[in-house]
Structures are given as C-alpha cells and as structure tokens.
Amino acid sequence: MDNAKGRGMLNILVVYYLWQYPLKSTVLSHLNAYKDYSGHRVSYLNIATLFEKPNVPDYVAKFQWDLIIFTYTALTPWSRPLFQKIMKSLEILAKNKTTKVACPQDECLNMDLMNQFINDMGINYLFTAGPESEWSKAYPMLDRNKTKIYRELTGYIDDKEIAGITHLARNMPTVRPIDIGYRAYKHYPWLGRHAMLKWQIGEAFKKQVGSSLVTDISSEPKDILYGDNWWKFLLSCKYFLGTESGCSILDWDGSLKAKTEAYLKEHPSASFEEVEHNCFPNIDGTYRWRALSPRHLECAITRTCQILTEGEYNGILKPWVHYIPVKYDLSNIDEVLDILKNHKDLREHIVNNVWQDLVQSGKYSYRTYIHWLLNTVLEKNMPFQHGYKVEIIQKRMKIEEWLKWQAVRISLTKL
C-alpha cells in the first residue's frame, strides 16, 4: 500500500478481545490483515484476561498513536456485564486524541452501550455491517458531524488463505462425497425470525432431502469445525446452505433478551410464536439488519455451490448467477432438490461465476479492504510519530501478547 497517501509509516494500534483457542480462521485473517496489508507499523492489544478483567497497560494508553482501531471482537455486545467491563477498561484510551475507528458487528443487542462507547471514546469513523436504512435505529445517539459512518462487509477474502486452500484441495477426493453440507448455531428467539432461519433452513432440508442425497447438516455445538478441518469440510461438499447474516429485532438495552431467557426458563418447550407473544409482541421485523457473511466468501474460495434464501447480500450475490435461491419461507425446497438432481451442470457454472466475481476480481479481499479503510480515515494533515520509542513499545507489546496467548492455549486445552 502507498503509506497513507504517501505520508510515511504510521503507528497503528489494533484493539481486540479474545480468550478462545483455537481461533476461527475468519477471526485470525481479520486480525492479521492490518499488519499484512496496511504497509504501516501495527501493534496489537488483546484486552482479554483469564479473570475477565479487561485492561489497557498504562504505557500503551500514554503513547500517541496515529490511529486506534477497535475491532468487532473488542465491541462484543452479547454479555452486557462484560461489555460494560470492556468499556470501563478502555476509558483510558479516550484521553488519546488521535483518530479512532470502531468496527462493530452483531449490532442488534445492547446498542445503548455501543452508542455510549462511541460517543465517550470520541470515535471519528464507524464501519458498520448493516444497511444504511437501519443506521438511524441502531445509532440514534451519534452526531454524524463527529462520527462518520461507512458500510463494510462482515469479512473478506485473505489472499494467503487461497493458496493454503488450493494446496488442501489437491489432497481431497476428486468427487466431493457430501451433496449438501451445513453448520449453524441454533439462535435465540429474541434475535427474531431471521436469525432463527439460519438453523431452520438446515432442519428443513434434512427433513425433505430423503436418501437420494448424502448430507452433513448440524446445528450442534459438538459439530463445530475449526482451521483446516473446516476448510476440508467445505471442500467435501458439493452444495452448502445459507442465509444472510443478521437479525430482525433490535434489543436496545438487553431487556428483550432478559425477558425471553426468563420466560424460556419457565417454559423451555415454548414455540417462537408463544415467546414472541409473551416477550416481544409486534417487534419482530421492525429491524432489518442483514448482510453478506464470511461463510459466503469461504464457499467462494472452496468452489462450493451455495443454496441460499432469497436476499440482498450487499448487492454482491445474485440468484442463479452466484447461488441457487430458495424462497425465504422455505416453501420450494422440493424444487431446489429437483434442480440438484437433474441439472448438475448448473453447479459448475455457478461456482465459476463466484470464483471470477468474488475471488479472482480481488474486490472483496482483505488487501483491498485495508487500503480502502485507511485511505478513508487517514487525512493528509494528520500528525504522526517518528523515532525509536515506538519500536521499544512494539517489542514489549509483542512479548506480552505472546505470553497472553500461551496462557489462553494452556488454560483452554486443559478444559
């Protein structure tokens, strides 16, 4: 990359929160992209600790960074108490007057805290995964003159992964043994019908596929795959199911989540309709937070043909060009299965289109994304630091990060 429009090397701090092992490849690619493709000095700060007491070292907070980026892993809204702890620990960085960028995802829960964080931290640029039509619902507390909003994808393609997956593919069977594959979490009712659809599509296909096709479809946590095992799974599938990422309910302060969990504790077998009636009537569908997901790009890399519910997919994926569409209400599964059995040449046509338009074009690579993000946020008159001090800080941070990841690996492999 041309260094910030020809301005020289910048000192960038990337803040994240991760205490898990092993890491999903999508998360690892996202974090590594900043150092791999920015052309600048990038330092990483993992604020997670064994005792869930996030912290920012004083020497890191006092250094005048040129740019601070808060990744989606540091802005996790799923646990309100944890998010509040993270916000508290990051207060020290609010005093740093450099340009700050926030890249949240899962913008459907505890958005009151997210708005508060962005305002208190003095975030200059917000990169969101959601459509512009929903920004005023998700971010009503922001001053658009102080915080500029842009839309990004939930993930991108890593050039280095393509080479690794191509190598893996050479050792895989020539004929893919699985006709239809899928993995999905069983989502919670308080995220709305759209989130529920993510695992319902798998259940629906399992019921209707019959014995003529080989399937490997699961929403069980024990069947989650990581690293090369995930890529091998995708490379073993002819077709993969999917929906748009997102949700159809905005739980502003977490109250709907709390109410739903309390109700399900008393009524564990309650249907979605019953939960909706008692916990969030007339709310589902008032929020349309939908986006292309990293999985859609992963299938593009592995040349796995996708069967997706009809949707927008950020205007990138087109039905019959990039995927085989299934109706949003899943009413035409039999028709889709008939296409799979009788029009086998369609799969090759679609995967070639996807490879050319998404992978080969380079439009959706991390290299392209990082260049775009930095050229968007870095202004020509932005001051930046020189000298040896950053090298000392960077070495210290690398050592501390390495030690922390050893603690993560040891603590989680013992479980």
Outline the fold blueprint:
Blueprint: E1 11-16, H1 25-37, E2 41-46, H2 58-62, E3 67-70, H3 80-90, E4 99-102, H4 111-121, E5 125-128, H5 135-138, E6 148-151, H6 159-170, E7 178-183, H7 193-208, E8 215-218, H8 227-236, E9 237-242, E10 245-247, H9 255-266, H10 272-279, E11 289-291, H11 294-301, E12 305-309, E13 324-326, H12 333-342, H13 345-360, H14 366-377, H15 389-413
Parallel strand pairs: 1-2, 1-3, 3-4, 4-5, 5-6, 7-8, 7-9, 9-12, 12-13
Antiparallel strand pairs: 10-11
Helix pairs in contact: 1-14, 9-10
Measured by DSSP, the beta-strand proportion falls in 5-15%
Overall radius of gyration: 22 Å
CATH class membership of the largest domain: Alpha Beta
Could you name the CATH topology of the largest domain? Rossmann fold
Order of helices and strands: EHEHEHEHEHEHEHEHEEHHEHEEHHHH
Could you give the count of β-strands? 13
Distance between the termini: 42 Å
* CATH architecture type of the largest domain: 3-Layer(aba) Sandwich
Alpha-beta classification: alpha/beta
> Which homologous superfamily in CATH is the superfamily of the largest domain?
Glycogen Phosphorylase B
Which percent range fits the helix content? 40-55%
Tally of contiguous helical segments: 15
Largest sheet: 6 strands, parallel
- The side-by-side strand order for the widest beta sheet comes to 2-1-3-4-5-6
Shape: globular
Q: What is the total domain count? A: 2
